[in-house]
Amino acid sequence: MNAKEAIDTLVTSYQSSPICHQNFGGNLERNGSQASFVTHSLVITKQSFVNMYPNLGYHWLRLAIYRFDANVRWGHFLLFMAIGGFPYFVEDIKEILNGHYGVAAFVVGSTFSSIPYLLIISLVPGAITCSLVGLRKSFEHFAYFTSLLFACMLLVKSLMMIITSIVPNFLMGIIIGAGIQGRMMLNGGFFRLLNDIPKLFWRYPMHYISFQKYVNQGFFKNEFKGLMFPDQTGGSPAIGVEEILRSYWQVEMDYSKWVDLAILLGMLVVHRLMVLGLIKVVEKMKPLVKNLRAKSLKRSKLVVKNLSTPK
């Protein structure tokens, strides 16, 4: 049997099959309905959660690195290494732009699906650090410490999603994300105190929009506020740590540590809304850019054709 006979046999078999008569034997009936936003969000949450679990590079490898570095690092290392999720954000953005699911559902689903993993990453190194370093071990102080880490991990993930929306290139995205992270660390008030930061641009507004500022101050207030130490200069019998934090470390002691955490959560909401807006803009601009490229390519081919045509 040659190829033509084989094809004819397949066509004849299909035309006489029940499936062919079922598909073309009558009018199509539409019994389905459009999935709701909640359904989209739940499906994406489950899909992202399942995809993250077997993927060693997404969270588990970072957890192992944080575990072994917990005795010599602290929150800065955890936050800086959070840029490791950038390659997976690129794949998610591609799926959105290809129309697989909506932008809002993706933002909600990606947020909830990563919460269990980021909680583990915050709790395990946080517990090791508190034990080895000798931080205050009451439940309130430990809960606040891990809550700060958790909020910061979500913030950095949102930051990398913003960068992914603008720069989908893997290498450029990693470089830009690391640069922004490093700049926020330098402006956070730990490596350079507030009075040493130049006022123009670096202090106003960069210092106050850097989430590292609120992380550092929250850590200081959580660990030292309320403690008293003996005065080594021969003055008063004891000196409050609050005065040291205010005068030496230039920590803003006028508001509670919970305000710092609330500011971080507010910044998280703003970052997520920025992700939503940027992806919407990219989604609208993609067909326009595609049309412009097609017109430019067509114009170039026409010019080449005119040049190659003999006169």
Largest β sheet strand count, sense and barrel closure: 2 strands, parallel
Q: How many helices does DSSP assign?
A: 13
- The residue-averaged pLDDT reads 80
Q: Count of DSSP E strands?
A: 4
Which residue ranges are poorly predicted, with pLDDT under 50 across at least 5 consecutive positions?
Answer: 68-74
Q: What order do the helices and strands follow?
A: HHHHHHHHHEEHHEEHH
Strand order of the largest sheet: 1-2
Gross geometry: elongated
Distance between the termini: 54 Å
Membrane topology: Multi-pass membrane protein
GO biological process, one term: transmembrane transport
Transmembrane segments: 72-90, 115-135, 142-164, 258-279
Protein name: ABC-2 type transporter transmembrane domain-containing protein
Keywords:
311 residues; mainly alpha; two-stranded parallel ribbon; two-stranded antiparallel sheet
